[in-house]
């Protein structure tokens, strides 16, 4: 069980306001950043194995550039807020994400035992024709699929957070970025990056689950739970043209019910 704990990112070198990323996400820049991030993680992993570096309490250590890399832990959590002017978007190393603008909660904090408000999955087609999902965040915990994950860690920086999930031949990264370039608002961007390590064509799907709250209140009521509009844009071709647009209302068939929640699907 993971429970909130004190922040684990208090203490890295002061990066300074002038070095914060305040522009929209650029695909080429992100690709280079993810490659650099993985190289830094391999560097600290080697240092930990050889004794040149030590792990902090909570399975946390600092990369050479001052960002915190968080590995799996049984107790506690690490988190960091992104935003400004009363707008905070909290990203937990455990995968839980929530945010608010003053008293307006875009996503509610997740209590212990609840489904996460935000989740990402990738599914690969198996020999029997079925697609087996793997969570790209540490939550939800899919016990029967954990053997697929060879390595998982979270990198928390002062400009963005990265959730890294590696299978045998499919490295995956979820990039969480709060755009501070616009005054009066702080849009949140999620970017998923998958890179195949094989030359063989793979049949994959990517699925995103979000349960926004969008209310000036601290808790969910009966009416808030079932009657909220949901929009999704999916299936782009190689030229990034949208091939399918969906709009639906959230019901028990999507969010889950008493006998079967999101984790079980």
What does this structure look like?
With about 260 residues, this protein is mainly β. The protein has 2 domains: about 20-215, Beta-galactosidase, Chain A, domain 5; about 220-265, no CATH class. About 10% of the residues lie in helices and about 35% in strands. It is built from 3 helices and 15 strands. The protein has helices spanning about 25-50, 220-225, 250-255; strands at about 60, 70, 80, 85-90, 95-100, 105, 120-125, 130-135, 150-155, 160-165, 170-180, 190-195, 205-210, 230-235, 240-250. The strands form 4 sheets. A 6-stranded antiparallel β-sheet has the order 1-2-9-10-11-12, with helices on one face. The longest helix is centred in the first third of the chain and has 24 residues, at about 25-50. Residues about 1-25, about 230-235 and about 240-265 have low confidence and may be disordered.
Shape: globular
Give the proportion of residues in helices.
Answer: 10-25%
From the alpha carbons, calculate the radius of gyration and give it in angstroms. 19 Å
Cα separation of the termini: 21 Å
The gist of it:
The chain is mostly beta strands and about 260 residues long. It has helices at about 25-50, 220-225, 250-255, and strands at about 60, 70, 80, 85-90, 95-100, 105, 120-125, 130-135, 150-155, 160-165, 170-180, 190-195, 205-210, 230-235, 240-250. It is built from 3 helices and 15 strands.
Please give the structural blueprint.
Layout: H1 27-50, E1 60-62, E2 68-70, E3 79-82, E4 87-92, E5 97-101, E6 104-107, E7 118-125, E8 131-135, E9 151-156, E10 160-166, E11 171-178, E12 188-194, E13 204-210, H2 222-226, E14 229-236, E15 242-249, H3 252-255
Antiparallel strand pairs: 1-2, 2-9, 3-4, 4-5, 5-6, 7-8, 7-13, 9-10, 10-11, 11-12, 14-15
